[in-house]
């Protein structure tokens, strides 16, 4: 079993072999704005508007943490609500999941809580045995379907979940670049369960999810690649 955990997931045949230099840009949607001045970054803008606070928090919550205030907090709620409404209209099943999960659930998703350094936060084992904080609602949704039979006629299942994600990105004191690789954030997740009758179901649902992501970014007026 421990040996099997070392086996990587299969890679899609279309993925280039090699490092980042071999990556292919498949599509660019929208146009990146051009300014006649040097634009500020999101952290500088947010701090100037008093909607993001990331400085002087080491005594409160350590590094890689932040506060959203006023319009910053409302913007996060608005983005979550916008995305949930969008996906509910597409027939997704809304779900809330536990943040604390057993190690076996993480292993089933390809995450090893016992790795060094661990990618997840582990709760004090002397008080709560084998419980970790999820870095994505994907783990909780996968746990819901563990040892769980789904009728073939009900597939594919489309699930959407908004959750708090906890990630042990780094514990160094180096100044982070804004709200990036933070220890805690809110994310809306799309999750699918498909059949495997002809072997193309998973890729077809992935393409559907990708199309929905494009719709979301385009409707928000963002350019993306």
Automatic annotation (TrEMBL):
The gene is Sars2. Belongs to the class-II aminoacyl-tRNA synthetase family. Type-1 seryl-tRNA synthetase subfamily. This is serine--tRNA ligase. InterPro entries: aa-tRNA-synt_IIb (IPR002314), aa-tRNA-synth_II (IPR006195), aa-tRNA-synth_II/BPL/LPL (IPR045864), Ser-tRNA-ligase_type_1 (IPR002317). Its EC number is 6.1.1.11. One of its GO terms (biological process) is seryl-tRNA aminoacylation. It comes from Platysteira castanea. It is an enzyme of class 6 (ligase). Residues 36-225 form the Aminoacyl-transfer RNA synthetases class-II family profile domain. It comes from the Eukaryota. The keyword Ligase applies. Keywords: Aminoacyl-tRNA synthetase, ATP-binding, Ligase, Nucleotide-binding. The keyword Ligase applies. One of its GO terms (molecular function) is serine-tRNA ligase activity.
């Amino acid at each position: 079993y421990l040996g099997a955990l070392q086996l990587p997931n299969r890679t899609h045949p279309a993925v280039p072999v090699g490092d980042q230099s071999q990556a292919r840009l498949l599509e660019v949607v929208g146009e990146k704005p051009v300014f006649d001045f040097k634009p500020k970054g999101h952290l500088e803008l947010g701090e100037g508007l008093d909607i993001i606070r990331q400085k002087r928090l080491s005594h409160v919550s350590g590094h890689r943490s932040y506060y959203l205030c006023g319009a910053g907090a409302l913007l996060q709620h608005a983005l979550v609500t916008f995305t949930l409404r969008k996906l509910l209209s597409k027939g997704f099943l809304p779900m809330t999941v536990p943040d604390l999960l057993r190690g076996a659930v993480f292993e089933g998703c390809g995450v090893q809580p016992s790795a060094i350094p661990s990618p997840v936060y582990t709760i004090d084992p002397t008080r709560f045995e084998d419980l970790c904080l999820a870095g994505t609602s994907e783990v909780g949704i996968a746990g819901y379907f563990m040892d769980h039979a789904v009728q073939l006629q009900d597939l594919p299942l489309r699930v959407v979940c908004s959750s708090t994600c906890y990630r042990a990105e780094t514990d160094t004191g180096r100044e982070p670049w804004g709200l990036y690789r933070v220890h805690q954030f809110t994310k809306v997740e799309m999750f699918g369960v498909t059949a495997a009758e002809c072997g193309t179901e998973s890729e077809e649902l992935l393409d559907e999810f990708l199309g929905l992501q494009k719709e979301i970014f385009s409707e928000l007026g963002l350019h993306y690649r």
